[in-house]
Every structure is written in structure tokens, then in C-alpha cells.
Amino acid sequence: MIPHSRPTLSEADAEAVARVVLSGQIAQGREVEAFEREIATFAGQRDAVAVSSGTAALHLALLALGVGPGAEVVIPTYVCDALHHAVTHTGATPVLADADPATLGLDPDDVKRRLTARTKAVILPHAFGLAAGVEAFLAMGVPVVEDCAQAVGALDGGRPVGTRGALAVFSFYATKMLTTGEGGMVAGSDPALLARIRDLREYDEREDLTPRFNYKLTNLGAALGRSQLRRLAEFIQRRRTIAAAYGRLLVGLPCQFPPDASRGRHVYHRFVIQVERPLERLIERLEQRGVQCRRPVFRPLHRALGAGGFPQADLLGERSLSIPCYPSLTDGEVEQVAAALAGELPRS
Ligand SMILES: Cc1ncc(COP(=O)(O)O)c(C=O)c1O
Question: Radius of gyration (Cα) for the chain, nearest Å?
């Protein structure tokens, strides 16, 4: 079975982690500090704070921006549940907005309609690795948290994603663009915001009892992340090569390809096609052919809340299929995936 996703790990990664184990300094320490500096440099930011997950990064980014009870935060409905959890953990209310079929991310016009005097932030994911186009959101005058969990290395108007918003968050889960096992980061250029996040991520030896967390990343994870970061350009190149191969091999199939990817905008964390077929059955049949595919979003958030009024997200939920796309996928496996799809979605 070709898995939908898997991490891309090497001997060098194992050696980097082993060095930390042998040093005895396994909790948060120098490796974490070095990883923070390297991610800040890579992301074109002044500073970055490492945390234990992308969800923790979102949570602390919102708290640093002063989001709390009574506030509203606009998030997409077509996204993973982590965004909803991060907002509700602060005591604020998540306000859902519809998807933009041009980016599979947030629709700026729908976001504009949902802003109120209580809106304290917009979380803008660069969905599936495609830079969303931050300008339209910045123009709304509300702090934008750029969610780069799936898009490290993508370019937005020629600049790396994460450099325009008030803060940028990253996830380093096992199958993300680079991994620390579990982990995350908040990057930005406002020292006061980053100092707040650094303070909130740990609780030890503080005079006051302001509620804080244990959201720390370990040196073990950071060592792995640093080793992975050295190969990130190579990872992105391989993902783009696979995407280009799918573009050739799937041509003529009754499916729609991912949105425009010119000028470095897409790093293909996911290769998401649109298919007008019942997805459950198709996923089952592809699995019988030895290829695991997935819905890229489990279900739009509004479905879990029993709400309506998000027609584009509903369509994406019904039609989007994520097919294997990761650096360790071999050329032979890419051909097998394409052959399985061609078997299930014959050219007319
Ligand atoms: C867009 C987006 N934001 C945030 C997260 C949360 O990251 P984590 O799983 O590291 O908590 C994810 C996870 O998949 C994600 O896809």
C-alpha cells in the first residue's frame, strides 16, 4: 500500500537526535534556541518562539494579540479543527468564513462580510501549501495570523509566506513540510508579542500566577527540525517535481488540478484534486488498488456545528481528494498512483 503521507527521514536526522540524547540535555535548551534562530532567518523574521505543536502556536499567538472572552476571530470553515480549538481555548468566539475556490483557502469577500467591532484577528492558512495572497486580508485593518503549517517555503508576491501578518505560525508534525515529530513555532517582528509568547509557553520560576502553559519543544525535536531544515529546499523541489509529474500523468482525467502554482506560490504539502464522484467509494476503490488517498480536510467545521451558508466549502468537502505527495514518494510510486486514478476515473 502506498500511504497517503509519510515523513521523510534520514541517517543524518537520526544522528542529530542521537547527539542530543548522548549530551543528556534533552529538554528545551540550546538546540531549541538555535532552531528558533534558523526558522526566523528562513522565514525572514526578526525572531521566533518554538512550542510543542501548531495548535499551541495558534493559541499563544492569539493570546499575545489580546484575544480573549468577548472577542471574535475569523477562521475558515474548510480547515482542520486545530484553528477552532485554538480560538475557543482563549475564550473567544470562532467566526467561520467560506472558502475561495481559487486558493482552497479563505474567501476575502466573505471574511469582510463577517467582520464586526469585536473581531480581534483573522487566521489565514496558506491551504495545502499554496500562498493565499495576504494583501486582501491586511487591507481589512484587523491583525492577521498567517498559518504557515502547510506552506513553509511558499512565496507570496515573491516574499516567503509568514512575513506580512502580525504573526506567523508553523507546525512541525510528522508529515508536515519539515518535522520535529510534534512541534510548532510562532515567528514575527514585534518584540513585545514574541516576549509574551515566550513567557506564556512555560511556567517555571515566575513571581506571579498568571496562567501559563507547558508548551515547550524539546532539544530532541529541535535537533531533528534543524537537520530537516537543511534539506527543506530539496524537499520542496521534490514535491514540485511530483506535482509536475501528476500534471502530465493525469491529463485528460475527469478531475480538476490544484489551483495555479506559478512563481513559487505552491510547495504542494498536499496535491488536492477535485472529483465529481462519491468520495468514500472512490477512496475505498483506490485503496483496493494499493493507493491510500484522503479527504484533505476531515469535514468543514460548520458541518460539525450544524450550520449552513458556506456553499464553496460544502463543494470542496464533497469533491476534494488528496493524493500521495511527499519527498520520499518514488517515481515508480507516482506512476502507480496515477495508474490507480486512471483506472477509477477513465478518460472519456
Ligand atoms: C493549517 C493548519 N494549522 C494548524 C495545524 C495544527 O498543527 P498541529 O497538528 O501541529 O497542532 C494544522 C495541522 O494539521 C494545520 O493543517
Answer: 20
